Amino acid sequence: MSYKIPLFDLNFDEKEGQAVAEAIKDNWISTGPRCKAFEDRFAMMLQVNHAISTSNCTVSLHLALKLIGVEPDDEVICPSLTFVATVNAIRYMDAIPVFADVTSYELPVIDPEDIRKKITPKTKAILVMHYGGFACDMDSIMNIANEFRLKVVEDACHGPLSEYKGKKLGTIGDIGCFSFFSNKNISTGEGGMLVTNSSELNDRCRLLRSHGMTSMSYERASGHSTTYDVIELGYNYRMDDIHAAIGLVQLDKIEADLVQRNMIREMYLKKLSSIDGILIPFKGYKEFLSNYIFPIVLKNSTFETRDKIREQLAEAGIQTSVHYPAVHRFSIYKKFYTELPITDYLVDNLITLPMYSKLTNEDVFFIVNTLNSILSNE
Ligand SMILES: Cc1ncc(COP(=O)(O)O)c(C=O)c1O
Description:
This protein is an alpha/beta fold.
């Protein structure tokens, strides 16, 4: 089924294709100069010392937890209101995910007070996720981390260029991780980035990303090195120059894309303000924002009602989603189940409305009017 208004649309034109064609013409398609250029520009945009490109964010998260020294049976405090990859990365290390609730329906990001309650002698790290590109309460989280000597990893997949008190998300904790999956603000198909201000973490990350080898093919082909040693058990988690070529074009577009998304958010806020049955998370949010998604929450509702409303929106040609089904309720996470009342209500009653820079005012009017008439008949 193709929707009249999809949930997301790529911000692509002929430039992405041309960039790929040029990479092919230059005869180097694995990790090489375009990955380096993409990393350098990303680091500059985020005002962070190091950016390391990867094949996706899931592996960035895995590397991040390895780099900060998470060991089997260590506990890592994380949200359940996230994409499952955030938590899977903890399990890759044979560590224990300890789920913390979010602050409120209005602020659906990890609650610092609940983090504090869940700290034990086994806690090693806090893995936060900036939901929708809206910042977690990083001052409180960093204070807790300093008090208990915990490491902080930021899953900033939703928030490239989003800010918290003037700092870019992903640059506040020890390591930040980004995704360039198709539906993200910066799309390369698959792709990821890990950012850090630590030279030590940067050096080790580059080793682990590439089999633990002391040099890479491009360096050898450019005559910078003739051989290599393998000094750690590493992985192949590299990005390639074809994806980086697309990423570089996407970086040219990101600022204008975010301006556009911000206008769409403003339009949604204006139009939705007259609807009583919903609340809009982060309504008065003031920081610079990626606007990755536009979630709304139904008041006094149930998941049956929410699903019925989504079906009716789909019948009208509007694609919606739910960001996200709760991770602590997935079958493989039963062993780590804990009561999370706010997360539970949210995942059953939220609807993600379409958000992308090509969405027009008319599209927003149509979405809001359709939603309003469905809710009036409930
Ligand atoms: C919050 C979050 N974390 C992690 C990921 C995993 O990223 P990737 O698909 O690049 O592995 C995603 C998206 O896919 C995500 O939205």
